[in-house]
Amino acid sequence: MTDRYPSIRSHDEAFSQKFLHDSLQIELGDNGRYQVKGTGSISFQLVCNNTLTLGKVLLVPGLKKNLISVSALEDKGMRIAFMKGKILMWPKRLQH
After folding, report:
1. pTM of the predicted structure, to 2 decimals
2. Closest CA to 4 of 60, 93, 52, 73
3. What domain range includes position 50?
């Protein structure tokens, strides 16, 4: 997939924008194919009181977990680290 999606959600209550689809399908690492019901954007409140908004998020009902693509986030200019069971993210270029 050339245009990567940063996140896949199983529920739609977090979407601030949503566009319905009925013809998209994705294949995950278990070789299972899943129907995409929509795309949109979601926002997260960060501990530093900033808001992070992810666009091109896929709505895939039936998934047991929400998924996020680390490589897609890195392509969008984020740095990612995993520490003590948490994911840390920050922009590659910090503005001063």
Report:
1. 0.62
2. 73
3. 7-69
